Amino acid sequence: MHEMGVTQEVLNAVVEASAKAGATRINAVRLTVGELTALVPDSLMFAWECLTPGTPAEGAVLEINATPGRSMCLACGTEFDHDQFDRRCTACGGPQTEVIGGNELRVDNVDVDVPDEAPDEE
Ligand SMILES: [Zn+2]
Question: What is the pTM of this model?
Fold first, then answer.
């Protein structure tokens, strides 16, 4: 399952960043996942449940903000949202389009617990 590898990478990055920030525990992680990545949010959730036990992210909530694919028509300049299967222009039906969004996979926010006595390294 593709999602398992992707989730492992996200988890590694989040754990590493949290450790650098002096966090002892990760409470929640918010991800933005574009439709064109072909990643299935439910599968990401499942992978998260499988991979987080035994890590600082154990029990952390994974929130997924799914964004649609977005393209611009090269013929008429219309920008439109679409799924990963049909990318034709919604205005003129033209097949010549350029993807401008929906390929993103990024961590938007990580909610962590940082002990009070930890030094503040800004
Ligand atoms: Zn068009």
Answer: 0.82
